[in-house]
Amino acid sequence: MTNANEKYIEYGWHIPQEIRLFAGDGGGHAFGIWLPACGNPIYNHPIIEVGELAGDETCMGVAGANLLSFLRGWSAFDLVYKENSELWAVKLGEDKDAPNRLKRIQTALDTLHIPRSLRAEHHYEDSQESFAQLRKWADPSLPDPYGDPYSQRYTISDLKRNMSAMCGSITTARGIMTPILDASPNVTRWQMVSIGTPTQRIIR
Fold it and tell me: Measured between alpha carbons, how far is 66 from 76 in angstroms, rounded to an integer?
């Protein structure tokens, strides 16, 4: 998807130049990694979700605090979704291979250390709630695990203001300040992580 940005812009989407689109959710939304001009490794940058409303520049939201947490959350949700399907197949007893597929899926869930309380047998009555809880587990720095582009409604200016803080940590006399994404587009939180009890201050 090296030319995905250009294609979407041709179709009338508002895509900041700092975003490089790399995937979609299968339902019309696109995901991109925020890559400003700085020296951070690629996996340290936030993931932005772009809604399908072409021409609406306020249709973006933060989908991940970083690439690894984003991928872990989506992988967990996909596996739990498949686990739910195979549990039903095992209960029906009509598919002889269902127990083997279920075992493979549950082995993958164990490998990712996904808590039992978040798995299908305990937590799949509501897929939206299940997804939000898995995002909380996988990406604790995510400001709004229930959020999407239509509820967060970030503009390009909002993203540039908020995401500029995500380009690395700041070393101070007391330790290292690391940025924390906030649910408000106008607020950036910083947490002191290297010395003593973590503290936070707010930059508006």
Answer: 16
